[in-house]
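Need tokens for this chain, all 278 residues.
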Amino acid sequence: MVKSLVDCRTIQFSKLRELDRLGPAVDLRLYQDEEGQQRKVVFKIYATYKPRPISMFWPELHLFHRLPPHPNLLALDRVVLEDIESRVIGFTTRYISGGTLDNMAIVFRLEWLKQLLQVVDFLNLELGVMHQDTAPRNILLNTETDKILLYDINYSASKKDDQLVDQDDVAGVTFTLHELIPGDQSFTAGHQRRNGINMVRDMPNWIPKRELNAEVSEFRRVLNDWTMKRTADGNMMERYLNATSPILIPEMPTPPDYEIPISYGATANGEPVWDTGP
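Here are the structure tokens for all 278 residues:
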């Protein structure tokens, strides 16, 4: 395993028992920890992205590893190693049974919006991290603590060169709230994001499609106050680039070749395609 991850807790792939498939390259798994406790986890699998996985997962895994504890961020659990060469093939996070906020049956609470604003400020202004994919599907509900957990940082940026066009988190939070309350996803597409932020803010009425624990006007007031504070000096990007405790992602080393081939697909005739690269 690379030196930059040697202090991570690890687990061998063979020790993860599959319980369910949650999505493409995402499983629900179970393992027994060193104290004999059964841990239910979500396993994100990198090996399916052969032959060029390292450049894809390097920033995500190292950023995840370096995130400090926060009550509204999902934490890294273990780095998963394959059994023969101890190659990194993915990672696990704690399974959160409350689901995500795209479930419109969940009553959306004003305090959860405030938690979202606080954790986005923490990422942007303290750590210099732009999440770039805030959305109800990426916000978990921890029913044990009654707090939200922001997760899925594979689009996150920790420097200007990694920034995606029109994906700043102030706009992202605005579109997220508009999706949470009126249930409107039409402004999340790229061309709509560029022109939609003011349209969403200026809409006279947001007709809620879910139950709320406060008036829509109060949700909008909290959002607008935060947005004005974040954009007041016109230097939103400058503040992000000059974060107080920025996370630095190490440069990716030149990976060695491996002796054991891995299949990463099949030919038109169904024959497996093998690769022994990084």
